[in-house]
Known about the structure:
This is DUF3078 domain-containing protein. This protein is mostly beta strands and about 375 residues long.
Amino acid sequence: MNNSPTPFYLFILFFSLCLSYVSGQNQDSLPPGREMEIDSMVMVVDTTVVDTVVIRKTQEKIKFVPRSVDLMNPVVSFKRTNALNEKPNRFKVPSFWTTVNKLGANFSEVAFVNWNAGGNNSISALGNARFERNYKFRYIQWDNYMEMRYGLNVQDEQKLRKTDDAIRFSSTFGLQRDTISNWYYSAKANFNTQFSNGYKYPDRSSPISRFMAPGYSFLGAGTSYITKDQKFNLYISPITQKATFVLDEELANKGAFGVKKAVLDADGNVLEPGEKIFLEFGFLVTNQYEKEVFKNMLLKHRLSLYTDYLQKFGNIDVDWELNFDLKVNKYVVTTIGTHIIYDDDILFDEQKDASGTVVDSGSPRIQFKQLLGVGVSYAF
């Protein structure tokens, strides 16, 4: 039997390989979550358990903690959040339009009971309305307004009489030269007329005016000066067409308000009817101004001047209103006002005496109206 050492050596080699394999398995089977860090040849093993909560020394402060939030497990559940009690404000597109709506009524009353000096009981009422729609954006300004007035008066043993009647519309479009200047390139359109028939009291048989008899329209272009606060407005137009409408045939045949009257024969029969439109071309200046002269005392001024290039240049048509509004409170207002009109085309009736001599040729005159009333005003 050969006593060779070969099997012994093979056993020793096999045993060494087994020990190496077992040692390798022990090193690679670290528990999950453990890491090995080698720093300066020193082996450090993190023994943090999976379910351990890590608390850092430099923790960020929580400024706001929602409801139903666990600080140990900060998870927000959207199923448990409450809806907002108030709806969020939505963005609104800005409007460049400004609106003004005003309704008012003035009253005056006089009553006598056993008054030795005598007098007639009377009641007067005047209703007015004003609506404005104005647009302003950068270089563009567009102002529009409509104003309506109607007044009545009643006295003892008299029927109703009209004291005021007006419909006025105005539209002005302006293009600003720059954002610093107050001057605009402007175009303007105006229209004026009345609601009902007008009479020369006490005669009620023949009206001296009607709706659209007269009616006035102005259309032109020029320049405007408008202050930043919109309280002062000056319009100058060297090219303006003025049209006078007399749509009532009877008044047109008489040549009322400047239109060409009808051609009559010897017996008074109409051979050629009167014209219903009278056109002029001239120069127009308008001005509007508002100022609080004293506390609760507002001055309103409106002026219109017009002269015709083609006929009687230099004869100026004047339309001027001056009003003072004395504000008592939010709703009660006292109004004092004057209105002056002069139109070279408006002729008054010819006056003759008993012998047939012409006393008054019916030339143009200055028309004047004065107003004093206490009323209520409502704006919305």
